[in-house]
Structure prediction request, 679 residues.
Amino acid sequence: MTTIDFQQSILAGIPEQLPAPVTFDTSVNHAPRRKDILSDNEKKLALRNALRYFPEHFHGELAPEFLEELNTYGRIYMYRFRPKYEMKARSISEYPCKSGQAAAIMLMITNNLDPTVAQHPHELITYGGNGSVFQNWAQYLLAMQYLATMTEEQTLVLYSGHPMGLFPSSPEAPRVVVTNGMVIPNYSSSDDWERFNALGVSQYGQMTAGSFMYIGPQGIVHGTTITVMNALRSLEARTGSKGRLFVTAGLGGMSGAQPKAANIAGCVSVTAEVNSKAIETRFSQGWVDEVSDDLDKLVKRVREAVDNKETVSIAFKGNVVDLWERFADEEIPVNIGSDQTSLHNPWAGGYYPAGLSFEESNRLMASDPELFKEKVRESLKRQVMAINRLSEKGMYFFDYGNAFLLESSRAGADIMNDNGNFKYPSYVQDIMGPLCFDYGFGPFRWVCTSGKHDDLAKTDRIAARVMEELLKEAPKEIAQQISDNLHWIKEAEANQLVVGSQARILYADAEGRMRIAEAFNQAVKEGVISAPVVLGRDHHDVSGTDSPYRETSNIYDGSRFTADMAVQNVIGDAFRGATWVSLHNGGGVGWGEVMNGGFGMVLDGSSDASKRVSKMLFWDVNNGISRRSWARNEGAMFAAKRAMATEPGLKITVPRLANENLIDEVFRNAKTLKNKDVQ
Prediction:
């Protein structure tokens, strides 16, 4: 297809002539069948909802087809409207547009749905089993048409993938405002999500899926590398021995980063995965070195790799429970362990129980969801038992923010200690929170819209130069973080991290992000970089996400179940210059468990972009630092005071620290008086 044909297809939106039906393409990874949750009357409503995108003369042919999709897959995806052009991030110059910012957003959307990037591309799901860009292909077609025709004085409004329309605004306003899954709080159960999604009225956008900011597993590999590296450092500090073996599960969208991160950290890793297509994808991309489906051979290979001090990543094609139990029986010296299956979505493809094949599980979760739930619960109990056995031998196990501890506790597994808390920490509590988030370090990312690898290489060099300058003047509290990230960016090219768009990720604080972004903008202005650069970040950050079992799990003042920070983040980003903003119910730990706020920003080399960089990025980070400081997190209090010293206009409310001995004494005295009164 030529560029002109591609542009005309986008401008056409929903076609005037009904496309021919398509056959189900078995060459790509598809979403599992969702359970049949709607009543007959609700199915009729779902049909009416789907047909409203199309002229009435299409309805006679589409209605039975959409009902068949709903009954077969549990959703109406509108497969026949999937575009015929290759889905990938093209050069920004190839997208039809009246607004360069809108063209950048179209690029990001098509990257999210690239089959080499997306987990279930034909169901418009980018990662996590249910992280959707849109609910159906009609929404995609209409949104792309709106973006291609909008001006710099219009804003596109998206309600859970549905393009509500173009509304007059101003050049300073965001070009797109996205909300996903914003249901009334009392309607956030897993069945609520299934019902609303099947009706076509709400979707689970995760964060970077529904925010169009996903950049493949690279987007998580850096954070995973930092986590694994510091877990090994922590193990060495406690035991004096250098750990070599990391065991985990999951090779999907986000979890697929684990073997690559383990390689960068220099250890042996074994990652279990039941989906053969996911393993094939990661192996073909070079993100995993070896594949084994034989536990006998795997045990022998792991012992050999550890003894020889190899750096190697091995994918185990099989169930993680079988892996954990065998390693526990064999007393394999696992040093660090975790899990990154999609347990935020345990009943619909996020976790596959032991004793069933991948195909059997997919059938059972739709045909007998209650039996499937029981199988999952029993599997989690077994998994925890094996993990406990290895932990007693010295393994450091941490929850990787996928709701493993939460769902295991709900299943009745032996996961709680005597105090009623989880036996194992969240990786945010032990590692990412105190080392990174509290100091403002998080997953700053960028995409070169030219599509040229040469431009990406130039951004790597620019970012490295800025980090070197920052390291020279850095206080000791953050020198290690800057040093680790400087090493990361210098090695990025050699690690072959790019999947899909020419993108990069780097953990940086507010100062680092602003200085790197300004340097990029200047390079675009001078023609050193040939096209605009898109900035963004993950939800896995200091400021954008309120998630009591992950990003804000190291908030101990009682506010970790509040979501003011995420909402304030989006509002503040919107009027400080973000190109698009997004707010999501749901994320890596589940619908109803987290609120995510995100942004995208286009650097086009203009002075206007330069102003937006300084105002918006400063707020985007320091919003989270101020909240963490108020929670009395030591690193955040340091970061807040440092930020105020650099910006006279910033006044953060700093907490006064109570004397713990005084609190204990007052409490004891009050209790004594109460006992006397009772007597």
